[in-house]
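Hey, quick one: can you model this chain's 3D structure?
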Amino acid sequence: MNGSLMLDEFWRFVTERQAIYHRRTVLKQAPPWTEDPVLVNYHFTNVYREQDLGTVWFTEWARGRPAGEVLWGSLLYRPINRVSTFERLDGIPDLGRHREWLERLVKLDRPVFTGRHLNRGLPLYTRMVNGLGVDFDLFSVGVLAASSPGAAMKALMSAPGIGWFFAFQVYLDLVEAGVLPFGEDVYARIGQGSEAGLRLLYPSARRRDYLWLADELRVEQRYTLAGLGLALLGPPLTLKNVEHSLCEFSKYWRLQRGLPAKAGRREWAV
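Sure thing. Here's the predicted structure for all 270 residues.
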């Protein structure tokens, strides 16, 4: 498949995935919400990160809280990323009460973590949280006073146990909550999943151009969608959500062709 046809396939995936969300949540239609066999049988995150159930839950928790609390909450929430875990433990603990909360966490029946991304297990998670609790005030100043997205990411990754993936998820939480003053089109971290999506769209592109190409998808989306006769049932994708969708598209493309991909099967497909 040439690059032009693959670009068409990407935008058809994006618009149909968002149409599923619209049919399910706005129109309140009964399933299945699409005739696409892959989208019928497998779970994919929403086109807009802010519409994912886990992000909705965290956004509600964070609303009205001071910046430092939002940072602390995101650092504890994102490595687990499973709402039911926090609901069983009465939410995210305040700084200073985390040790008791961690004791309760390790006693929970499994699963504790989401199955959507890799995690490092409870021992390392416990060590990370306890480490953050020691000098959190100093750590938070470095993050919240960052003058650029890159500086914020660097400050986040200065803590033991926080790599670029989780740092980027926390960064996005802080941007979405208005805690960091950066727009959603200013910065994105192109991860392995979104790199796989970009390689499908631009097979001859150099890795150093991936961020620029992702931003080109954002800039050109109105013209591309109009040319394809497609409608996106929502606002134009920000750079954040282009990166988000590229990762999901790479899974969709593999499943379409019978290749393995990290995507959960829907209950009626099991």
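One thing worth noting: Residues 64-166 form one domain.
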